[in-house]
Automatic annotation (TrEMBL):
<dbReference type="InterPro" id="IPR027417">
    <property type="entry name" value="P-loop_NTPase"/>
</dbReference>
<protein>
    <submittedName>
        <fullName>Uncharacterized protein</fullName>
    </submittedName>
</protein>
Amino acid sequence: MPNHQPPGRALRARDGVVAQVVQPDAPGGRPPTGQTPPLRCLPLPRRVHDGDPTVWAVGGDEAAAVDLPAGPVLVLGPPGSGRSRSLTALAAAAGGAALLVEGSDPPSEHDLQARLQHLDSGDLVSVDDAHLIAGTPVEDLLVSHAARHGARAALHVAAELEGAGTAFRGLLPQLARSRTAVVLQPGMPGDGAVVGARPPVGDLPVPGRGVLVHRGRTTRIQVVAPPPGRGGQRLGEVG
């Protein structure tokens, strides 16, 4: 930091962003006619309940509804950050998942292959705890599905943030090519490196709080509390 700073100059400790405080011309004054009113920045709520199933998160300066990302989406975060609830909220906003794969209880290779063969690029596949199936035939099938449909693939994959940026093969690097991710509770700017972004850090560590990254642009978000039930059906529960 320089030794001398102009009045109103500030440094945000959580990410090192330099800011300048705007000094009003007069206390309580209004902007002159014809000028744009000052931008409002509303705080994000700690918890969001929304009756509209198409709303999966609120965010940005106005804490408004966030558009559903198209194509493949990574959901990354530490344990307890709300990965599963984010996956559920995304699926609900998309109208439900055609297939839900649980990394903690994965399907057989044969069953998964049979189901994937009947899905097209618009049929949503949600994968939870993807780090638990790394290096398995189940992951290989999902990688092939993602590669076959490319940027059109409706594929949402949740996994632990730790290790996501150092994986060189598998489902996470495959989806990272889309450069779209929900990074929950980032602890350092490098936590978004897997999708080529440096998310702001130091936010409240509440479930569902994080950053939506899309092609390098970041938006602070709070994921809505999920409705009862999951956002899709597990393989084996569907006839």
